[in-house]
Amino acid sequence: MAAVFNLNHHATYLDLHIGKSSSPFFLFHMSLSNVLVIAVMFVVFFAAILLPFPGHRARSES
Amino acid sequence: MTRAERRARRQRLDMASRAWKGPYRRYDLVKEASIALGVVLALTVLLTILFSSPDDPPSTIKSWATADPVDFVTTATTELDGSSAMGGYGPPYNHASNGQHILFIRVQKWLGVSHPINTAQDFVITPLQSITGQPSLQQAIARYQAASDKQQGDWTGAYEKGLKDAKARPDGSIAVAKGDYGPVPTMLRYLLGFAQSGGLDGALLASKQFYQTDYTKPLLFMSDGSVLSDRAMAEHLLGKQWGMMNETGSYPGQVWLWLYTFWYQIKPFSTSANADILVLTIMGVLSLAFVLIPFIPGVNALPRWIPIYKLIWRDHYRAIG
Amino acid sequence: MSVSDQRSWTVRLRRRAVGALPPEKLLPDGQPAYVSSWIYVFGVLSLTSLVVIIGSGSILTLKGPGWWHFTGVGHFFNSMHLWSVELFFFFMVVHLWGKYWMAAWRGGRRRVWITGAVTFLVAIPCALTGYVSQQNFDAQWISTQAKDAMNSVGVGAFFNLTNFGQMYSYHVLLLPVAVVVLVAAHVLLVRKHGVVPPFPLAEESAAQESPDPSPSGAEAS
Question: DSSP letter string over C32-73?
Fold first, then answer.
């Protein structure tokens, strides 16, 4: 069964290096998919604690 | 406030957190769990329909020997003389080295050889001995085994040098410059043919009984060559490419391994022969600390100092005014 | 308790279990009024993700480990299994962040934190054994690489990542059982101790909190 979006192709990567690009002291190299998952995790966490929760209005009315 | 007073205050606050004596409201636990199950099921089905899952077909000894016969023969030669990575690995496969250690802790050595692998016998000679009806092959094997260790090393060393400039022929064989290689080229020529026919995959899988579920030998043989690492490099799965977290294609991988893979990117771990035990020790300590957070001073107080809880419980704090 | 009751292991176990978790605590129909944030749903989302993992995994075991490579239906359930695992870790991490910032171990709830943390740590090798059981290139690469880490600490002597039979057994039975037992302990401890109350803003606030009874008679624990 074919997927709507075929992810079986080379990934895009996020590269950040500290130091010379030819021999960096530290190289952060992560696939865009992984970066997105982590970013969405943070977004969801902050949304979860910031978004109003239903039931507050019911409680304040009761 | 003295230390005793601070401890007493902490205990009072802890006791106050034990039981909630405030207001409750109606709540349907089973309904919530059912809704959650529906949501997760729907999300999983949606992600499945949108993205499916990766399934890159495995490499085989046959595909390796056919696509890159020079690399196959070079690897097999290093297995024959024990100069391959597996040949010099140490426990749990052999005694060629002591393995990794941290300070005086040498667990790899202490736990010994539990999965014995003799690379020369297991990857080359035993599979060749299973080929019947080839007297020149059996003579070559006998000649090799009868030679001294030094003679064997001279032959394989010379052949490895010759292989550096070897070329693959269209018929799948390889062309190596003439040299004093003894019976080694004959043995490896038969091994290459055996591998390209698919026989070596089965021969390496064979063990003490009919049913097979242990792929250790073919996998370790392949891992000594470049068949797996070339594919891995193309997919950014190498250790220095943060590969532990990555997946083939553009799929998300094991994102939760981010901290584990991070250590391998920095010195001293990135250049240490003991990188694995060092990193695992650090992660072991951090994991234990993670489990014991409630007991770690400072770490267990951080939620009080950085008041994210005021956002979480803002309705409650507003209600009590 | 009569003398015969005192000697009966069954009666003693039953009384201890019912004492710790009476039905109205095991399946309460009320919750503290301070539970009013979306962060609270991530526990049950993690739990239901685990249910989907086990369900999809069970279907994969029905037809054996090679099935999903050769049929569309098999591949579909493999994808369900993969994405439910990604969701499980995703929801579990958000749940863990929320519980940390609530200091949810307070008030005698340290074992709740500990069982949750250990569940996370046990889920990681459970996922690893799954990855090396895929019987594809990914499994080949992960097993041949991760074996070095296992071997370096001696675990490789009895846990062989390149042994498919062993890894499949760990993945399908031993480690899921460990995860389920830990999750069950975690959930029962939450039911026993209740969801952690908010930090008192000041000690005076703690003293002033209203002592209203719960509507269903469910005990505060």
Answer: ETT--SGGGHHHHHHHHHHHHHHHHHHHHHHT-TTGGGT-HH
